[in-house]
């Protein structure tokens, strides 16, 4: 009687090393650490993103009232009401610290050096933007020793001198030499009293066509105005021109 033999599996004829090569293994990609996503999962994510964008756009249109065409046609002024409904202010767009850049009142105003040059005299006035007296170093008023009335004072004129303050009398006040000495003295006082510490921008305002106009200009361009000249940002001519008006005085004739 023949003995029945159990058929041997095909795998028994394969060695162990070859068997591991034939076994199915997980697919991997070289030089990549990200897992492989199925195509249907990526398409689902794209559909969700598109749905979110469509919902956002519909909410915005509903908020501004664009989906109500009947009310818009009935009320012609609804377009302006829609624009004014969500009017943005600088405070809503930027923080309070940066919104002051959009406001002209927060812009820093420059100091001014006014020069009035007439044929009889020369006046020089150094002016700062209006500030409290306790914030002005040259005022001599401090927070501790000043009274309540002094603390409320505001100072804009820091220095005002003319050729008469330098002991020039009568016709000598309108000379070129008097104006040059006055300009040199004023520039020296501005430096010695520490007024240049707060000056970031300086505007020179010229008025009149006397001898002091050229004298003060030479002083600013010379050695006396080295420290002040660096801060000059603009030179303005504020000479008043007569257009019509009353009849002028008869010119003086000598001889």
From TrEMBL:
Keyword annotations:
Ribonucleoprotein, Ribosomal protein
What biological processes does GO assign it? translation
Write the protein's name.
Translational machinery component
Q: Which HAMAP family match?
A: Ribosomal_uS11
Matching Pfam families, A to Z?
Answer: Ribosomal_S11
Highest taxon of the lineage: Eukaryota
Q: What cellular-component terms does GO give this entry?
A: ribonucleoprotein complex; ribosome
Homology family: Belongs to the universal ribosomal protein uS11 family.
InterPro entries (alphabetical): Ribosomal_uS11, Ribosomal_uS11_sf
GO MF annotation list: structural constituent of ribosome
Q: Tell me the lineage of the source organism.
A: Eukaryota, Fungi, Dikarya, Ascomycota, Pezizomycotina
């Amino acid at each position: 009687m023949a003995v029945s033999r159990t058929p041997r599996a095909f795998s028994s004829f394969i060695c162990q090393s070859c068997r591991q090569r034939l076994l199915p293994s997980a697919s991997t990609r070289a030089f990549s650490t990200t897992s492989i996503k199925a195509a249907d999962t990526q398409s689902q994510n794209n559909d969700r993103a598109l749905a979110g964008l469509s919902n956002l756009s519909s909410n915005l249109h509903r908020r501004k009232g664009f989906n109500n065409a009947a009310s818009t046609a009935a009320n012609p002024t609804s377009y302006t009401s829609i624009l004014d409904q969500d009017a943005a202010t600088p405070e809503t767009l930027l923080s309070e610290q940066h919104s002051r850049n959009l406001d002209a009142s927060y812009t820093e105003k420059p100091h001014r050096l006014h020069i009035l040059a007439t044929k009889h005299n020369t006046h020089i006035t150094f002016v700062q933007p209006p500030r409290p007296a306790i914030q002005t170093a040259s005022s001599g008023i401090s927070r501790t020793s000043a009274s309540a009335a002094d603390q409320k004072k505001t100072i804009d004129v820091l220095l005002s001198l003319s050729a008469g303050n330098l002991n020039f009398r009568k016709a000598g006040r309108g000379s070129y030499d008097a104006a040059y000495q006055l300009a040199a003295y004023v520039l020296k006082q501005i430096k010695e009293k520490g007024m240049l510490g707060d000056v970031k921008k300086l505007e020179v305002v010229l008025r009149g066509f006397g001898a002091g106009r050229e004298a003060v200009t030479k002083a600013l361009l010379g050695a006396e105005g080295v420290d002040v000249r660096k801060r000059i940002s603009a030179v303005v001519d504020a000479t008043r021109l007569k257009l019509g008006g009353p009849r002028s005085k008869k010119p003086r004739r000598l001889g």
